[in-house]
Amino acid sequence: MSETLPPCPECSSTFTYEMGALLVCPECGHEWSSSDAPGDSGGDKLIKDSVGNVLADGDTVTVVRTLKVKGSPTGIKAGTKVRNIRLIEDGVDGHDIDCKIDGFGAMQLKSSVVKKA
């Protein structure tokens, strides 16, 4: 199996294995997409949540801390579920998730304040 899979781009280990759509290195713990080429810094970048899970379009996430929203007295409370997210590359000020939140409407979130549900 290790003959057909590429070595780890971090530590060059040849013991990589597949886990779903990702390739995993058991020696250093590095995970990467099988479509990523080592040394290819351009193109799609993986967006991870606050605990390190890789996010994809259509995922459901949970807000991990209370967020202030301009014009709202309560804000978005921790534990709020957000369904059907869209990942964006050119978000403003580090915001990389585009979504609709019930009671607030369309907005952008940072991946560092959500956890994959």
UniProtKB/TrEMBL annotation:
This protein's name: Phosphonoacetate hydrolase
Superkingdom of this protein's organism: Bacteria
Matching InterPro entries: YjdM, YjdM_C, YjdM_N
Entry keyword set: Hydrolase
Family: Belongs to the YjdM family.
Alphabetized SUPFAM superfamilies for the sequence: Prokaryotic SH3-related domain, Zinc beta-ribbon
GO molecular function list: hydrolase activity
NCBIfam families named in the record: phnA (TIGR00686)
